[in-house]
Write a structure and sequence with these properties.
Elements: E1 2-10, E2 15-16, E3 21-26, E4 29-35, E5 41-49, E6 52-59, E7 68-74, E8 77-85, E9 90-92
Parallel strand pairs: 1-8
Antiparallel strand pairs: 1-2, 1-5, 3-4, 3-6, 6-7, 8-9
């Protein structure tokens, strides 16, 4: 099976981004959602997923980025997808 966690960092403020709503979609259907904790994390956004293509949607409290969507291909195992966001940029990477 496949599982997913995430972490949002406010790089403009230099701290974790608490209270960010995150949604996970598969084939257009919402399969999981959560809100980042005080450390900016959702350790168990989704467990027991089937491998495949998913859309991870972040709703950061940014003055510019209202919604950040990432299409990801999840294979067997655990995946960690962080988002770094500031008023001027956003970036993501495949975490461990």
């Amino acid at each position: 099976m496949t599982s997913l966690s995430t972490h949002v960092l406010d790089t403009g403020a230099g701290r974790p981004a608490a209270g960010v709503r995150v949604e996970l979609f598969h084939d257009g259907a919402l399969v999981a959602s959560g809100t980042t904790d005080a450390d900016g994390r959702i350790p168990d956004l989704a467990n027991r997923l089937e491998p495949g293509r998913y859309t991870l949607v972040f709703h950061p409290a940014s003055t510019f980025f209202a919604r950040v969507a990432l299409d990801v291909e999840l294979t067997e195992g655990h995946h960690h997808v962080p988002l770094l966001v500031s008023p001027y940029s956003c970036a993501s990477y495949r975490g461990s």
